[in-house]
Design goal:
Elements (H helix, E strand, L loop, with lengths): L2 E10 L2 E10 L10 E7 L6 E4 L1 H9 L3 E2 L1 H10 L1 H9 L4 H48 L1
Parallel strand pairs: 1-5
Antiparallel strand pairs: 1-2, 2-3, 3-4
């Protein structure tokens, strides 16, 4: 049986919440699944991702193929990195050190991205105010 790690849509209309599930590749998107291993809510800012790390590594280890979206979620959580480090045969301390380094780098990147986003919003607001001012002067 071919197993896939994929998203199962839940929630109301226009308010999606997804379960990350291990399911038979032949079953439909919202159909029967083997195990729920996490939750993904794209509507929050930032998006909420809760994945059971041990179960995800288990399913990847027995040959489950993640879909593109689930692969991205796993890599953003650091689960694929941890799995690769485990495959290399590193000890638990070495894996922990490398994961800590990755988390620090990831946090720095997120902080820089949020700062850039705030600056972009500020300049956009200033240009909109300037446009409104010129429109009001032209109309008067």
């Amino acid at each position: 049986m071919a197993v896939k790690l994929r998203l199962r849509r839940m929630g109301k209309k226009k308010q999606p919440i997804y379960k990350v599930v291990a399911a038979d590749a032949r079953s439909p998107r919202d159909g029967k699944f083997i195990e729920a291993i996490g939750l993904y809510n794209p509507k929050t800012d930032p998006a909420t991702v809760e994945i059971k790390e041990a179960r995800a590594i288990y399913w990847l280890g027995v040959g489950a193929q993640p879909t593109d979206t689930v692969k991205n979620l796993l890599s953003h959580q650091g689960i694929t990195l941890k799995r690769e480090l485990m495959k290399q045969g590193l000890s638990e301390e070495q894996i922990t050190l490398k994961m800590d380094e990755w988390k620090k780098l990831n946090e720095a990147n997120l902080a820089a991205a949020s700062k850039k986003k705030a600056e972009k919003a500020k300049t956009k607001k200033a240009s909109a105010e300037k446009q409104d001012k010129t429109d009001s002067e032209a109309g008067a």
